[in-house]
Fold this sequence. Notes:
alpha+beta; about 50% helix
Amino acid sequence: TPEAATRYHVVRRGVTTLIVAVGVLLALLTIPAVSRVAGGILASSAVVALVLGFAAQSTLSNFVAGLLIAFSQPVRIGDWVEIDGDVGTVEEIGLTYTFIRLENRERLVIPNAKLASDTIRNSTIVSREKVAEITVQIPLDRELSPVLDALRAELADERDPDVFVSGLGEDAAFVTVRAHAANEDAAEQLERSLRLRAHDRLRADGVWK
Length: 209
């Protein structure tokens, strides 16, 4: 599920990072010179901790925000979201950054702290279903009711199909064809299919020449 996948990715990366950090530290401490330096550092650990705390404040806040996102899940991997006017799919939630694939296929990289504190529009938080939609133009000299009936028959096997006149121009009527799909990728594939099927049906019925 998206919930389990999101938790798994973030927790796995956190555990892997912790194991690697501890392993490197233990390996370094086996070197006598490093052990002596470490002893001097530990003697002033309070000062070092304070300096590191300020230096890593942003990184730590992003890390903690990543864990909060993984378990509270305002967004999940695969969700369709809008952030500051940018719309896309959550592709990956890392320890400190989240990657969103935009509609133009570019990647938006957002610090987790910003993601956890900003307002997000999540279109798939309740359901991942998307609506596939196309619009076709019908010449005004054609009777519209038979055209609508033909397109509805073409969509009879789709989920929650809808066909209606969405606008009228000087030379053509605009007919919108809709059907539900399981997710964004399925909706994109369905739209391609609907364009081809609508074209073939309208040509076969003589609506288009």
